[in-house]
Amino acid sequence: MFADALARCAATEPALPADRSGDLIDLADRLRAPLTVAVRGRPGVGRRTVARALTCAGVTTVDRGAELVVRVLAEVPKPEDLAALAGPDRPGLLILNKADLTGFRPGGPVAAAARYCVRLAASTGVPAEPMVALAAVAADGLADGPEDPDGGALAALRVLVTAPADLSSPDAFLAGAHPLSARVRAGLLERLDLFGIAHAVVALRADPAAGGAEVCAALRRAGRIEPVIAALARAGATPMYRRVAAATARLRELACGDPDAEDAVAGFLAGDDAVAARAAAAAAVLASAGLTVESGAADPEGPGRPEPGLRAALRWRRYRDGPLDALHRDCAGDLVRAALRPAPAGPTRCGPTR
Ligand SMILES: Nc1nc2c(ncn2[C@@H]2O[C@H](COP(=O)(O)OP(=O)(O)OP(=O)(O)O)[C@@H](O)[C@H]2O)c(=O)[nH]1
Ligand SMILES: [Mg+2]
C-alpha cells in the first residue's frame, strides 16, 4: 500500500520536481522487492531441502543480509537452536521439518507435529509450522516430467496402486519380488521417500484418472508448503513494516534537504494515503503477534459513546503506553494516527487534505 501511494504521489503531484519524482519511484520499487529470507539450522535437519522447497514456491532465499531468518528444526530444539533464538539473528519463523518422522500418534505424524508446533511457538515466542520438505520438493521434481527410462515415476506409482508394495520401511520396500524392479523402487524412494510414495499412491487410488498435476498437488499438500508460505507471509509483516519505516525516514530527509520538494513530500507523509498505508503495515505486524486489529467501522455500544475511530485511537494509545518494545510501540502509534482521521469520503489523493 505504501509503495502504491508513493508511486501515485510521484505520478500525480505537480509540485514535485522531476528528479524527486524519480527518487520516489525508486523508493516504491525497493518497497515492492520480494522479501529476502535466509534458511538456517543445524546440519542434517533438511535445511537445503527446505530452502529448495521455498525457492520453488517463489521465495527469494539468500545466504547473507536476509530480512527474515527461518530456522529449520527436526524433532526438538537443540542447544544451538536455543542460542539462535536468543541471538541477534533471531528467527521470525521456526519450521519443524521431517514431520513425517514424528511417529504414529493420533491423527498421524504431521498432525502430531502440528500440535507440537503450537507448544513450541508458545514456549519460544516464535511461530512454528510443521513441514515435510522432502515431499514438497518431490512435487516439484515430478512436475518437471517423467525422466525414468522405465516409463517415469508417475507410471511406476500407478503400478504401486494395483500391486501394493510393503511401505513399512525403506528396506521392506526394496526387498523381495515386485512388478517394479528394485532399481525403479530405489529411484522412487530417493525422489519421494516412503511418505511421498504413500501420499502419491493414495492420490492415484482415490482418482485413477489423476495425472502428474494432481499427484504433485497431493505431494505439496503432504509437504505443507502452502501453510508454510502463509506463515512466512505473516512473519514477513515485521520486515515489511521496517521497510516502510525506513522509506518514511528517507522521505523526511528528502523533505528537509530539498526546499523545492519539501511541501510535496511532507504533504505526502501527512496525507491520508501514507497514514493509512503505514497503519496497514503496522496492523499486519500486530496481527502477526496475535492481536485483533479492528477496522472500528461499527459502533456496537450505540449513541452517546465516543465515535469508533476515537475509541480505537484511545485503545491503541493505552496499548502504546504499556510495556512494549519499540517496534510494537511504533505500530500502535501508527494506528492511533490513522484512527484519528475521519473515514475518507471518496478516493484519497496525494498530499494534505485539510
Ligand atoms: N524424512 C524426511 N527427510 C528429509 C526431509 N527433508 C530433508 N530430509 C532428508 O534429510 C537429509 C538432510 O537434508 P539436507 O537437505 O541435505 O539438509 P541439511 O543437511 O540440513 O543441509 P545442508 O547442510 O545445506 O546440506 C537428507 O537426506 C534429506 O533427504 C523431510 O521432510 N523428511
Ligand atoms: Mg545435507
How would you describe the overall organization of this protein?
The protein has about 350 residues and is an alpha/beta fold. It has 3 domains: about 1-30 and about 235-340, no CATH class; about 35-135 and about 225-235, Rossmann fold (3-Layer(aba) Sandwich); about 135-220, no CATH class. Helix content is about 60%, strand content about 5%. A 5-stranded parallel β-sheet has the order 2-1-3-4-5, sandwiched between helices. α3 (about 45-55) links the parallel β1 and β2. The longest helix has 25 residues, at about 180-205. The structure holds guanosine-5'-triphosphate and magnesium ion. Guanosine-5'-triphosphate binds near residues 41, 45, 97 and 133.
How would you briefly describe this protein structure?
With 354 residues, this protein is of the alpha/beta class. It has 16 helices and 5 strands.
Low-confidence stretches: 146-151, 296-300, 345-354
Q: Could you tell me the radius of gyration in angstroms?
A: 26 Å
The count of β-strands is 5
How many domains would you count in the coordinates? 3
Bound molecules: guanosine-5'-triphosphate, magnesium ion
Please give the order of strands in the largest beta sheet: 2-1-3-4-5
> What series of H and E elements makes up the topology?
HHEHEEHEHEHHHHHHHHHHH
The number of helices is 16
Euclidean distance between termini CA atoms: 22 Å
Largest sheet: 5 strands, parallel
**How confident overall, as mean pLDDT?**
87
